[in-house]
Design brief:
This is Peptidoglycan binding-like domain-containing protein. This protein is α+β, with helices and mostly antiparallel strands. It has helices spanning 12-19, 31-42, 57-69, 81-95; strands spanning 106-119, 129-139, 145-151, 156-162, 166-170, 183-190, 193-206, 214-227, 233-238, 240-241. The chain folds into two domains: 12-95, PGBD-like superfamily/PGBD (Muramoyl-pentapeptide Carboxypeptidase, domain 1); 106-251, no CATH class.
Length: 257
C-alpha cells in the first residue's frame, strides 16, 4: 500500500514517512515539507506564512491541531506514518470533490465545583473577590482528568456549587484529552438555591493558537451547595492538573451533604 494523493505519491520523503522510516519535524526543509504545508492550508489548518518549505513553529502548530482533531497520539509536531496516512486520505477526498468528514461528536462526562465570594462589580475591577474552581472531564467510559484554578475576577455575591457527573456531546473530544496549562474562559449561570436542587449552566471555552476554540457545555438541575450570585459567574484562568488522588471526582466528597 502506498500514498494515494497525486500530491504525495512518489515523493521519496513522504513515502518514507508513510513507511515509518522517516519522521518529518522541525527544522526540516524542502519540497516534501512544502507539500505537507499546502495540504494542511487547503484543509483549513492555519499556516500564516504559507507553504514556505520550512518546518518551523507555524507548521508545528498546524500539525498538532491536525493530529488532535484526528485523535492521533501522541499529538506532537511530528509527521510520521499515522499523520501522513490521515493527511493523504483527507487531501485525496478534498481534491476529489468530497470534503473530509467532520469530526464525530463524542459522548463525554463532566463535573465542576466552584466556590467563591466577592463584592467586585463585574467588568470594573472595583472591589475584592476570590474563587476556587475545579473541573473533571472524560470520554464516556474512559479515565477521568481533573484540573483546578483560582481567580480574583469580578464576582458579586457568594456561591459554592458542585454539579453531579453530567453527560454531554463534544465535537472535538481530542482537544479535551489534556488541558494542563490550557487557557480557558468559564461561565457559570446558576439559580439562587440552598443545599440541593440548584440549576446551573456550565460553559468552558478552551483557547488555542491553532484554530477555533473548543467549547464544553452542559446543564444540570441537581447542583448542590448554595448560590446568591447576581448575574453570571465569569472568569479567565489557566488550568492546572489535580493531584492523582483527586483525578476521579466520584471518589471524593466536596460538600458535607
Amino acid at each position: 500500500m502506498a500514498l494515494q494523493s497525486p500530491r504525495f505519491a512518489g515523493d521519496p520523503v513522504l513515502e518514507s514517512c508513510f513507511a515509518g522510516t522517516h519522521r518529518m519535524h522541525t527544522p526540516e526543509q524542502g519540497d516534501a515539507v512544502r507539500k505537507v504545508q499546502q495540504a494542511l492550508i487547503d484543509l483549513g489548518y492555519p499556516i500564516p506564512s504559507g507553504a514556505t518549505g520550512g518546518f518551523f513553529a507555524e507548521t508545528s502548530a498546524a500539525v498538532v491541531l491536525f493530529k488532535q482533531r484526528h485523535g492521533l497520539q501522541p499529538s506532537d509536531p511530528v509527521v510520521g506514518p499515522g499523520t501522513i496516512r490521515a493527511l493523504d486520505e483527507d487531501i485525496s477526498r478534498l481534491d476529489g470533490g468530497t470534503p473530509p468528514p467532520a469530526p464525530v461528536a463524542t459522548r463525554m462526562e463532566g463535573k465542576f465545583m466552584f466556590g467563591g465570594e466577592g463584592a467586585t462589580i463585574p467588568s470594573t475591577g472595583f472591589g475584592l473577590s476570590y474563587a476556587l474552581f475545579k473541573v473533571w472531564l472524560r470520554s464516556e467510559g474512559g479515565a477521568w482528568r481533573g484540573y483546578t484554578t483560582a481567580s480574583n475576577e469580578g464576582l458579586l455575591g457568594a456561591a459554592i456549587i458542585e454539579s453531579p457527573v453530567t453527560g454531554f456531546l463534544a465535537d472535538n473530544a481530542a482537544m479535551l484529552a489534556e488541558l494542563h496549562g490550557a487557557d480557558v474562559k468559564v461561565t457559570i449561570r446558576s439559580s439562587t438555591f440552598v443545599l440541593t436542587g440548584g440549576a446551573a449552566d456550565f460553559e468552558m471555552t478552551v483557547k488555542n493558537n491553532y484554530g477555533d476554540p473548543t467549547v464544553v457545555r452542559f446543564s444540570t438541575g441537581e447542583a448542590k451547595g448554595f448560590s446568591t450570585v447576581v448575574g453570571a459567574i465569569e472568569f479567565h484562568a489557566t488550568l492546572l492538573v489535580l493531584p492523582p488522588e483527586e483525578l476521579d471526582p466520584t471518589r471524593n466528597t466536596y460538600l458535607p451533604w
